[in-house]
Amino acid sequence: MHLYSYLSFNKLSDILFATFLSRHPEVKWAQRPDKIYITVQLPDAKDAKVNMEPDGIFTFSATAGAGNSTYELKMDLYDKVNKEASKINVGVRSIFCVVEKAEKGWWKKLLRGDGKAPHYVKVDWDKWVDEDDDGTPS
Hints:
Immunoglobulin-like, 5-stranded mixed sheet, HSP20-like_chaperone, protein-folding chaperone binding, about 40% strand, mainly beta
């Protein structure tokens, strides 16, 4: 019985340790009435994989750094997106995504649900445009 308890604890700690080893890259976002800009800040990312689902699920994974650390991200975007019209560009310093909204309109925030966004998700003030300054004629 003590051996079983020890093995159970080790499996749990292995899962927690593996979760701890998976890091979240910094994410910056901005929007326009018809699209969302998402920039994943991860210099020298290798094997970058980005996936978007029409229901707004956005996933990212890559390795980076001297130790080839794993970086993963799963975000439930505020609303539905047009996967086919969206674009992804993997650069040397970051991964830039232009996510087309399924319906035009301003989102209150990037992520669905209550509460604050995770600490690694920030507004991209360099790309941000206020709703009343979107450049469209009134």
